[in-house]
Design a protein that fits this description.
alpha+beta, single chain, 14 strands, Fructose-1,6-Bisphosphatase, Chain A, domain 1, 25% strand, seven-stranded mixed beta sheet, D-Maltodextrin-Binding Protein, domain 2, five-stranded mixed beta sheet
Length: 277
């Protein structure tokens, strides 16, 4: 079996993300139908989520049948190649439901099984079809937006940093997360909550955000976006011994990361404690 290059894997991720993004965009124009709720009534999945993931899964299986697959809307399957595709068919489903043009198809391919604590991301693509943007990156090859190289902003002091974050679907946890924002808001330029983790991470890479943090992310939320941010020069990490980013994922230029991480750690300890995600 021929070992694919990271460029070949990136090309497949990009092509698949563009194709799937067009399906998602078309379904958005036609009208969105909720298929089910997941963790709470607010945490919805649309028929388009399921249809888009089925398309992605089929395209990847046709191209690389020996690879594993780990998607948000279907069960994980192992492969024989040592590679696994990690997919969020529509990241930002609530934005998608409301017609807010901040949602994405997120596709990453990693070396290893479907475990972010042990895998190594090789390539990823994040496609926002609503505004025709394609973020992509491959390990050691840098990050791009529509073919333009990306580089995180450095030298931004905490007081002038624009932060991005996200909130849980659970209302009680959102109250505690809001307390973290309350403790942060007078120390930074401002805080944005835009509703799609993959695009938030790409926004750090593109200089649209200086730092992004969120607790409780799933692997498919950040697999591709974290690679884009890292390949643009961001430090992407988490609290303690949590490489999966479940406890807290932080992405920022290394200098800002060093300044902000202790601040966030203190606020999360005060308001969030060691709760489960």
């Amino acid at each position: 079996m021929t070992t694919p290059t990271s460029l070949e894997l990136l090309t497949l991720a990009q092509q698949t993300a563009v194709t799937a993004g067009e399906l998602a965009r078309t379904r958005r124009v036609e009208g969105v139908e909720i298929a089910a709720s997941k963790s709470s009534p607010e945490d919805v999945v649309t028929l388009a989520d399921r249809e888009t993931e089925a398309l992605v899964r089929g395209l990847l299986a046709d191209a690389r049948p020996q690879d594993g697959f780990y998607g948000e809307e279907s069960s994980a399957t192992s492969g024989t190649s040592g590679l696994t595709w990690v997919v969020d068919p529509i990241d930002g489903t609530v934005n998608y439901l409301y017609g807010i043009p901040f949602y994405a198809v997120s596709i990453a391919v990693v070396e290893g099984d479907a475990d972010p604590a042990t895998w190594r991301a090789l390539a990823g693509a994040v496609r926002n079809p609503a505004i025709d943007e394609l973020f992509s990156a491959r390990a050691g090859g840098g990050a791009e937006l529509n073919g333009r190289a990306l580089q995180v902003k450095t030298g931004v002091p905490l007081s002038l940093a624009l932060f991005g974050t996200g909130f849980s679907y659970d209302s009680e946890r959102r109250v505690r997360q809001a307390s973290v924002v309350h403790g942060l808001i007078d120390r930074v330029r401002d805080v944005r909550r835009m509703g799609a983790a993959s695009l938030d991470l790409c926004s750090v890479a593109a200089g649209r955000l200086d730092l992004y943090y969120e607790r409780g992310l799933h692997p498919w939320d950040h697999a591709a976006g974290a690679l884009v941010a890292a390949e643009a020069g961001a430090k992407v990490g988490a609290f303690g011994d949590d490489p999966a980013g479940i406890d807290l994922l932080i992405a920022a230029a290394p200098d800002l990361y060093a300044t902000a991480e202790p601040v966030l750690a203190k606020l999360f300890e005060e308001f969030m404690g060691h709760e489960d995600k």
